[in-house]
Amino acid sequence: MVSTVPPAFIERYAPISGNATKFAEYLSKPLPRSFRVNTIKNNSVDVVERLENDGFNISLVPWYKDAFISNSDKRLGTTLEHFLGEIYIQELTSMLPPIFLKDEIKNANSILDACAAPGSKATQIAALMNNKGTLISNDLKYQRIKALRGNIDRLGVLNTVVTNYDFRSFPNLKFDVILLDAPCSSEGMCRKDPSFFNRWNERRYSYFSSIQKTLIAKAFSMLNEGGTLLYSTCTFSPEENEAIVNTLLDNKSAELIPLSLPNLISSNGITEWNGTHYSSELSKSLRIWPHQNNTDGFFISKIIKNA
């Protein structure tokens, strides 16, 4: 159970959440226990059958064939399947960025996960690459790098090089596909952090947005012409989402690709916030609210670099 949700938090997002009452209700609910089958090691049919034989009650996720929910109190992290790297315990919205890059990944010669630790999306991308090609997985913090390497080894990923840079000073290489899952205020993850609202304040938005603007400009500069940048955060704040992408659109030759996924309930990105107007292109972005699919909150923009 999360800490009490401040009324000011609900009021802040009431105009854009679609249903403020449901939004508030779901913020106080525990998250489902979700996981992804690692197709590098095994297939979903075999893994789920073994878990069910071990007493787990497993539900399918309607929008991703390798994602599942455990409805049991038993811990997935103690299973042989987890130990062997056949499953990755991962929140459902965290699986979305690689899904939305699936087609580009198939045709890319070079892929970068700019802020990769602890490896949920990097290992998923590697699986979508069939463990072939080259994926660079970078992260700033050495302690997180250790977790990233541990997960890469456990899941049997062989096509990934791990780097330890502040992405703002990453070497100026060129990539066909870049995933920038940017550091953020993490509001969307409040359901699994009981203390989150004890420290919530709006001053954090300006701190993170200044970093995000630098990171997205750096990532875009490293794209090959025609390349794809996917920008994502696990926060609700437009200051860290639409405003960041809007800055890129204002200054670079970039365009957004509309996003949707069958059976996934989502909202469009917003084009106005507190009197500030953004490009109409931002409506092509995707927002996930907790009450739509019983998940974390999430934001995604898919950006193409024009010549």
TrEMBL record:
SUPFAM superfamilies: S-adenosyl-L-methionine-dependent methyltransferases
Transmembrane segments: none
Domain SAM-dependent MTase RsmB/NOP-type per the UniProt entry, residue ranges: 23-306
Matches recorded under Pfam families: Methyltr_RsmB-F, Methyltr_RsmF_N
List of residues binding S-adenosyl-L-methionine: C115, A116, A117, P118, G119, S120, K121, D139, D181
GO biological process: RNA methylation; RNA processing
Catalytic-site annotation from UniProt: C234
Keywords (A to Z) from UniProt: Cytoplasm, Methyltransferase, RNA-binding, S-adenosyl-L-methionine, Transferase
GO MF annotation terms: RNA binding; RNA methyltransferase activity; S-adenosylmethionine-dependent methyltransferase activity
Homology family: Belongs to the class I-like SAM-binding methyltransferase superfamily. RsmB/NOP family.
NCBIfam families reported in the protein's UniProt record: nop2p
Record's protein name: SAM-dependent MTase RsmB/NOP-type domain-containing protein
